[in-house]
Specification:
10 strands, alpha/beta, 10 helices, ten-stranded mixed sheet
């Protein structure tokens, strides 16, 4: 992991995300890019930052935006100076297009291994940024996303990976990706399958076999019978004092998104533990 993206709206939860990202970046020797998404069309940020408008007089709105963007630039620089360390470099950027469109545009020109974002977990006006935007990333971006609600302690000694054992091809890829994080953090990986089946022994054997094929070393496997996988997974994670929960997400578009909130989006709202969501779509073409 070399590049981590952290969106900020200058709120407390986004500051927690930046702090977490800095701590996570250290063992990987990764660089952080801190970004603020401006509500202007793509390509207009540099115009407003300069306060110029093609040689003509600028409007009151353009002047206001120029002042606002310059203010945001100073706030970004303040954050960068506060959280940057001798081990972790932070670069700060502003980008137009609003949140989702802006992020997608930015990702077209830059490669990232991870996005870290703060979320309130509340159904409130704050949800517009810290909740709804987190869900948009999970649903639409092919980069793993860590969401968190509160300031987190370090180090991460235990990681819980929640899986659907029926989807072996994605399970194998998840093992490989999470193993990189687990080894770098020297953490124990707990591989959990929440099921309604009673054939627990067979599932555990299958999980162990796949873990060995993936080359995992410091891991445990368990199968939990429960009708509510979200609650069961979080209860297990809290029981082992996990510092990170990892799940696979299979986002769907169209009417489906309005009828069924994804498991990942619901989990991020309920979890006090940081949640790493890996979108299955990022594995397309690699399986």
């Amino acid at each position: 992991m070399k590049n981590i993206l952290v969106p900020t709206d200058f709120s407390e939860v986004s500051a927690h995300a930046l702090d977490f990202a800095v701590k996570l970046a250290k063992p990987f020797k990764a660089q952080i890019q801190l970004i603020h998404l401006e509500e202007v069309p793509l390509g207009d940020v540099s115009l407003h930052l300069s306060g110029e408008a093609g040689g003509g007089a600028i409007s009151d709105d353009s002047l206001y935006n120029a002042q606002l963007f310059r203010s945001n630039k100073r706030r970004l620089e303040t954050l960068r100076e506060k959280y940057e360390t001798s081990d972790v470099a932070i670069r700060a950027f502003q980008h137009g297009g609003g949140f989702l469109k802006g992020i997608q545009s930015y990702l077209e020109d830059h490669e990232f291994d991870l996005i870290v974002i703060g979320t309130t977990g509340e159904e409130s006006i704050q949800e517009f940024f810290s909740g709804k935007h987190t869900e948009q990333l999970i649903e639409h971006v092919n980069v793993p996303v860590i969401s968190l609600q509160d300031e987190q302690l370090y180090p991460i000694k235990d990681i819980v990976l929640g899986l659907d054992i029926e989807d072996e091809k994605y399970t194998q890829k998840a093992f490989e990706q999470v193993d990189i994080i687990s080894r770098a953090l020297n953490s124990t990986l707990h591989i959990i399958d929440v099921t309604r089946s009673h054939d627990n022994e067979s599932m555990m054997q299958q999980l162990n076999k796949m873990a060995k094929i993936a080359g995992l070393s410091n891991y445990l496997v368990d199968v939990i019978e429960d009708k509510d996988p979200k609650s069961a997974l979080l209860e297990y994670a809290e029981g082992v004092n996990a510092g990170l929960v990892v799940i696979l997400s299979e986002a769907k578009g169209g009417l489906y998104r309005f009828i069924h909130h994804s498991f990942a989006a619901r989990l991020t709202k309920k979890s006090s533990i940081p949640v790493l969501t890996i979108n299955k779509s990022q594995f397309m073409g690699k399986i």
